[in-house]
């Protein structure tokens, strides 16, 4: 019993090692930034309110008057041409044989020659990732796009950070938009008029552009707007389809040339035209990465009558960062610079319009200082709110410099002083940008590498150690001394790393990094030591195991892991998992047929005997499992990338509210009741519901109550038509289920055993009390009686035969009963469609268990091989736990999290506790992981309960080997381990056998849990590797990173669930121990 | 000293040669098709006839050998002749049709659209039937085939037929595994025409059976080689 606790500690250690690796990796990979929802404000000055005294007032203290906005300088037309690379706009007249993309935008060249003061051509440098959505975020908020903007809304792409569009609207300027619908997704209902067209079909070069061209002249003529944005998609699509060196590109660029000319002809004198590309493209026409081809877009600015500021005020004349667009636009339009902007005003594209009573440099000083204050304000607020993001020393340096600059700002009295000031200021602000970029845009390869290693090494060594050791030998490997050393060394090393992470020679970023790094090294050393000391056993096991066994199962496992490496596999993952699961069931059924689906007599082939045969029934059950899996196709939620997917944004339950599919309620209620009923019948048949003790009564009546509450909750919570019932009453139903579940947990802790020891009475009465319906128990009773007969003297012993109901399924019954309550809890949290999915998964699991236990009985030769599940079953169980995620209508995208679960049972008095909400959402999302990992013990013990239920099944084998030796007494097998493995055990005695072979059973349950942990670890490792490989892939933020997040959380959920499952088995075993000793004593 | 069963080896090699020839010619045929999507139509490609002709050729070959063997011991011949009666032929046709339906059903279960693509599913299941079930049924008749599947031992077969049965077994496993593995390429976003539903599975089945044949041929050749060495 003691070593079982050691096993628990080993599992805990393994779980900690794997999770720490995942954690470290995610710190390096998942760039995150907390998005701030504050909004910038400013004091508005109109031309009329400016006079000599007010100007003097302003310049008395520049520092305090920095939040001023001056009037709009001009109207702005922004033509966004998707993927307009800088090279496209450069004109080279010496070029003899121009490529299709060269020298096509002649208008830019002509205007630059003709009106150099009124035209500007700049490199427009993008921050990676160079995808349109991220670029648009950068172009409108002025901040650096990261993967997770914490605090932003997951459900819709709408931007909730302060941005230029909202600032424009807030200051009563109006906007018109034409083109790519991404804009209207990001900013719904902001535009006065919008003509948005979906950008879905990347092979369509012209539709969107033609529609814009149709509407653009009319809008330009209307003149009731201040900002007009037109987003052309044709060039980007052309690049994706043909690449830049195709003659289609020539056509599209000439078309764009035409568009620009027309706009310039039509726009009035008081308008600034900005032609910008949001990113470039590679020579193959793709984008998304950070090569210079991709980040160098183009910016062309032009005004008809006025000129741009031409003096050199420190702004770069060659290149402009894309985030600089936001402050520049704000300056032109006279609105405050958005709160979280990090860009600088580029004066090269600001129209030179003087304000009354102010010199040019004075105006610009106000603008620049406004910009600087805004950036520092944002930066320091962020740094204060998120203490660990930036290094303290950097912050101090910056603050000192900023204070110096503040003093300088007040002492500028001429243009030259301003020029030198603004030069220093720009250097300082670029320093801030660089600091932010290091934190928000750059992956941290060190942490990623260490995270990968910290996950891989424990998995590898544990695989060597655990898979290759025999179940009975674990207690020799993991002795108390070893466990003590493991924990002592781990804690010491982690503490050392935490404290001295800066002193080590390797670059360790933070305390946590140092702790995990040292933990990894020390635990790897411990593990390798353990492997070396047990090398003899491992080598023997390798020698004994057959080569090339389980090839199809391994193939399936490899496919299941390989899913992560291709974005199209991730998109179709639900179908792939289904396919592989069917493969696993197929393998099991084929194995069954191979082992027992043969008629002994050579020519008696009758249809009736075929139908009667066991393996036919099993094959039929397997077929049924496959049909069930196929029918779960209807439960999948589709994702945006799949074609004809309508409901990717609407949350699952709105579909039902619309009506027309109301029968899904009935289906889910029916499934719930069927599941409860069949489980109850099963338990009753096993004899576990006999007697009147408290826990048995709870197991008897609790599920009925829970099922009723669950059904009621399903029916009432989703139906908004029923107005009579108060929400608090619906909540009460959910609360009852929570309470019942807690009660079940309590019972599990206090007195788990669902057995009934018949009170001691006379022999005649005993036989009367066992009636024909409980033949199992009768069987069991006989066995026990026989076994006692041999030792106890005849006559004397008859009075002392203990009769125990439900002893044959003592382990599995408790797990199943616990699982029942857990399932009902999970069903309550899911929406109705998903609850059908859970029941389907459970049914498939049950069929797999039955097939597998019979298969194992046919193939196993000793006790150890009969409690150690086959690889196919382990893989099947593992895949099923992942498949359940999809069967419960979930998808691995961040926008499709089911937030509704957070309110189950809390709608009427919502307590605003985010912890509980998060907990409920995680339980909802990873229901499959929790359920299947808690119930994993069934895989080990279930064979015995099957044969205890149907003793006939074992007859075929019993006939063959008649050496059916019975155990003489119920004893603990650990004491004489020398001969126990040679004794053929009697499976009809059920799980009592398990108790007798305690050491082997606990060892193999431990092994199984460790195997599951290794599988989970392996899967998440694959996900991590694929993220590392694809970290500059176009789809990394959309597909790979969310997949990794889901996989990581599912592993974080699965590991504790496995430990919980192991704990349950330990608890049962412990109380079983006490029960048996009590019976023996009273005997 | 290793002894080589010359007769058996000869039969195995000839069978495998025909199998490989069928596989190769059907792949060449596929290569020469204008577009691979014509596999999806019944009358646009000669894939099914080619495989069928191949199976019939195998049948002739096997009949030639098994009859010559049977003539040596007359008792078997009488029983054999009785076997191929009208009822048995009907049953054979029925079994094959049933297998087509079963395969089609499995395809749907494994994720094919339920009814829209019935023609494609039909073609795939016919090809699978031809590659897996038909050789056995052609050789042994319906009763024999059922015995091979369901009984431990098959009665009234000569040694030549046993050789074939084991060959067909490999062949069938290869075809099914190949068709199953063929689905690997379906979800990828390469937008190729050969990624459409039945094509990778059909090609997978053909290649799978081809690979299985190659493996068994290699085994036979290895045996010949080791026998040759031991002389």
Sum up the structure in keywords.
heterodimer, A: 1083 residues, Alkaline Phosphatase, subunit A, eight-stranded mixed sheet, two-stranded parallel sheet, 42 helices, B: mainly alpha, 8 helices
Helix amount of chain A: 55-70%
Enumerate the spans of chain A where pLDDT stays under 50 for 5 or more consecutive residues. Answer: 648-660, 761-772, 792-799, 956-983
State the shape of chain B: globular
The secondary-structure class of chain A comes to: mainly alpha
| Uncertain residue segments of chain B | none
Oligomer: heterodimer
Count the E strands of chain A.
14
Biggest sheet character of chain A: 8 strands, mixed
Percent range for helical residues of chain B? Answer: over 70%
**Separation, N- and C-terminal Cα atoms of chain B:** 7 Å
Neighbour order of strands in the largest sheet of chain A: 8-7-9-4-10-11-5-12
Average pLDDT, all residues of chain B: 81
State the domain count of chain A. 2
Anisotropy-based shape of chain A: elongated
| Distance, first to last CA of chain A | 23 Å
Largest sheet of chain B: none
């Amino acid at each position: 019993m003691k070593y079982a606790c050691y096993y628990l500690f080993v599992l805990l250690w393994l779980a900690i090692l794997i999770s720490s690796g995942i954690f470290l990796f995610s710190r390096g990979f998942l760039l995150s930034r907390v998005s701030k929802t504050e909004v910038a404000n400013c004091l508005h000055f109109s031309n009329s309110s400016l006079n000599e005294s007010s100007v003097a007032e302003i310049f008395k203290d520049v520092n305090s008057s920095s939040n001023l906005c001056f009037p709009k300088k001009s109207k702005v037309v922004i033509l966004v041409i998707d993927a307009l690379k800088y090279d496209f706009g450069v004109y080279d007249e010496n070029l003899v044989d121009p490529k299709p993309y060269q020298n096509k935008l002649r208008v830019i060249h002509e205007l630059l020659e003709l009106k150099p003061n009124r035209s500007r051509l700049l490199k427009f440098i993008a921050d990676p990732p160079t995808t349109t959505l991220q670029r648009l975020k950068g172009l409108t908020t002025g901040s650096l796009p990261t993967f997770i903007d914490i605090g932003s809304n997951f459900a819709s792409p709408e931007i909730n950070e302060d941005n230029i569009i909202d600032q424009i609207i807030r200051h009563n300027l109006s906007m018109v938009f034409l083109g790519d619908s991404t804009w209207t997704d990001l900013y719904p209902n902001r535009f006065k008029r919008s003509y948005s067209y979906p950008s879905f079909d990347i092979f369509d070069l012209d539709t969107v552009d033609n529609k814009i061209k149709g509407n653009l002249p009319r809008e330009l003529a209307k003149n009731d707007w201040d900002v007009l944005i037109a987003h052309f998609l044709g060039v980007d699509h052309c690049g994706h389809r043909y690449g830049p060196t195709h003659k289609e590109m020539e056509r599209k660029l000439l078309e764009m040339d035409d568009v620009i000319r027309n706009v310039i002809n039509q726009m009035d004198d008081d308008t600034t035209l900005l032609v910008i590309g949001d990113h470039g493209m590679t020579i193959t026409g793709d984008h998304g990465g950070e090569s210079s081809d991709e980040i160098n877009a183009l910016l062309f600015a032009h005004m008809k009558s006025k000129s741009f500021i031409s003096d050199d005020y420190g702004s770069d004349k060659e290149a402009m960062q894309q985030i600089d667009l936001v402050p520049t636009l704000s300056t032109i339009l006279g609105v405050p610079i958005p709160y979280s902007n990090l860009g600088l005003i580029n004066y090269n594209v600001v129209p030179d319009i003087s304000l009354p009573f102010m010199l040019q440099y004075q105006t610009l000083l106000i603008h620049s200082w406004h910009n600087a204050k805004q950036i520092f304000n944002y930066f320091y607020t962020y740094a204060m709110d998120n203490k660990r993001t930036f290094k303290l020393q950097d912050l101090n340096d910056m603050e000192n410099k900023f204070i110096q600059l503040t003093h300088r700002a007040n002492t500028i009295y001429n243009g030259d002083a301003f020029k030198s000031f603004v030069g220093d200021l720009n250097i300082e602000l670029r320093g801030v940008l660089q600091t932010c970029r290091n934190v928000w845009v750059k992956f941290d390869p060190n942490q990623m590498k260490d995270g990968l290693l910290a996950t891989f090494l424990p998995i590898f060594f544990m695989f060597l150690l655990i898979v290759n050791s025999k179940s009975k030998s674990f207690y020799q490997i993991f002795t108390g001394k070893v466990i003590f050393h493991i924990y002592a060394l781990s804690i010491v090393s982690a503490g050392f790393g935490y404290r001295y992470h800066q002193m080590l020679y390797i670059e360790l970023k933070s305390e946590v990094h140092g702790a995990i790094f040292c933990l990894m090294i020390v635990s790897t050393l411990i593990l390798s030591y353990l492997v070396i000391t047990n090398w003899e056993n491992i080598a023997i096991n390798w020698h004994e195991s057959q080569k090339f066994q389980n090839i199809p199962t391994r193939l399936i496992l490899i496919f299941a892991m390989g899913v992560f490496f291709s974005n199209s596999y991730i998109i179709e993952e639900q179908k792939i998992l289904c396919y592989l699961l069917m493969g696993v069931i197929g393998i099991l059924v084929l194995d069954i047929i191979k082992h027992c689906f043969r008629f002994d007599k050579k020519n008696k082939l009758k249809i009736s005997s075929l139908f009667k045969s066991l393996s036919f029934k099993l094959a039929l059950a397997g077929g049924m499992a496959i049909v069930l899996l196929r029918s779960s196709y209807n439960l999948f939620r589709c994702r945006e990338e799949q074609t004809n997917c309508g409901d990717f944004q609407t949350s699952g339950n709105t579909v039902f509210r619309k009506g027309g599919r109301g029968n899904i309620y009935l289906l889910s209620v029916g499934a719930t009741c069927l599941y409860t009923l069949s489980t109850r019948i099963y338990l009753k048949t096993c004899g576990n519901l006999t007697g009147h003790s408290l826990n048995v009564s709870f197991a008897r009546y609790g599920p009925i109550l829970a099922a009723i509450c669950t059904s009621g909750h399903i029916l009432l919570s989703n139906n908004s038509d029923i107005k009579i019932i108060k929400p608090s009453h619906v909540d009460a139903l959910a609360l009852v289920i929570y309470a019942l579940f807690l009660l079940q947990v309590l019972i599990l802790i206090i007195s788990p055993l669902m057995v009934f020891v018949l009170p001691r009475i006379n022999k005649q009465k005993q036989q009367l009390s066992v009636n024909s319906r409980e033949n199992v128990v009768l069987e069991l009773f006989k066995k026990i009686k026989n076994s006692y007969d041999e030792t106890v003297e005849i006559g004397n012993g008859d009075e002392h035969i203990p009769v125990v109901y439900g002893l044959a399924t003592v382990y599995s019954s408790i797990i199943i009963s616990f699982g029942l309550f857990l399932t009902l809890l999970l069903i309550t949290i899911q929406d109705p469609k998903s609850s059908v999915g859970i029941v389907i998964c459970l049914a498939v699991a049950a069929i797999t268990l039955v097939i597998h236990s019979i298969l194992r009985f046919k193939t196993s030769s000793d006790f150890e091989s009969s409690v150690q599940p086959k690889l196919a079953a382990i893989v099947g169980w593992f895949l099923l736990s992942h498949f359940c995620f999809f069967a419960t209508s979930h998808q691995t995208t961040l926008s499709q999290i089911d937030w509704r679960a957070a309110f189950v049972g809390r709608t009427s008095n919502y307590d605003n506790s985010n912890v509980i909400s998060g907990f409920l959402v995680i339980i909802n999302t990873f229901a499959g992981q929790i359920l299947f990992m808690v119930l994993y013990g069934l895989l080990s013990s279930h064979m015995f309960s099957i044969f205890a239920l149907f003793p006939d099944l074992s007859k075929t084998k019993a006939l063959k080997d008649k050496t059916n030796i019975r155990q003489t007494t119920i004893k603990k097998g650990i004491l004489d381990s020398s001969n126990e493995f040679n004794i053929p055990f009697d499976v009809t005695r059920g799980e009592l056998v398990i108790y007798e072979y305690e050491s082997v059973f606990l060892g193999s349950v431990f092994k199984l849990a460790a195997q599951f942990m290794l599988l989970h670890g392996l899967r998440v490792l694959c996900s991590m590797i694929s993220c590392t490989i694809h970290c500059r892939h176009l789809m990394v933020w959309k597909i790979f990173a969310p997949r990794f997040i889901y996989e990581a959380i599912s592993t974080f959920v699965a590991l504790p669930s496995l430990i919980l499952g192991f704990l349950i088995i330990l608890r049962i075993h412990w109380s079983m121990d006490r029960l048996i000793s009590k019976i023996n004593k009273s005997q | 000293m290793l002894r080589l069963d010359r007769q058996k080896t000869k039969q195995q090699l000839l069978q495998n040669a025909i199998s490989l020839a069928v596989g190769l010619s059907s792949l060449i045929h596929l290569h020469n098709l204008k577009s691979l999507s014509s596999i999806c139509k019944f009358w646009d490609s000669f894939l099914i006839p080619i495989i069928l002709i191949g199976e019939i050729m195998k049948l002739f070959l096997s009949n030639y050998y098994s009859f010559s063997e049977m003539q040596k011991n007359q008792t078997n011949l009488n029983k054999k002749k009785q076997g191929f009666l009208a009822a048995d032929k009907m049953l054979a046709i029925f079994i094959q049709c049933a297998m087509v339906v079963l395969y089609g059903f499995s395809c749907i279960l494994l994720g094919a659209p339920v009814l829209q693509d019935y023609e494609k599913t039909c073609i795939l299941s016919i090809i699978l039937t031809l590659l897996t079930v038909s050789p056995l049924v052609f050789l042994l008749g319906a009763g024999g085939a059922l015995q091979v599947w369901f009984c431990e031992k098959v009665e009234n077969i000569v040694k030549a037929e046993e050789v074939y049965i084991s060959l067909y077994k490999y062949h069938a496993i290869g075809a099914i595994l190949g068709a199953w593995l063929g689905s690997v390429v379906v979800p990828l976003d390469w937008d190729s025409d050969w990624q459409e539903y039945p094509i990778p599975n059909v090609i997978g089945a053909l290649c799978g059976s081809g690979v299985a044949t190659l493996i068994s041929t290699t085994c036979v050749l290895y045996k010949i080689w080791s026998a040759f060495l031991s002389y």
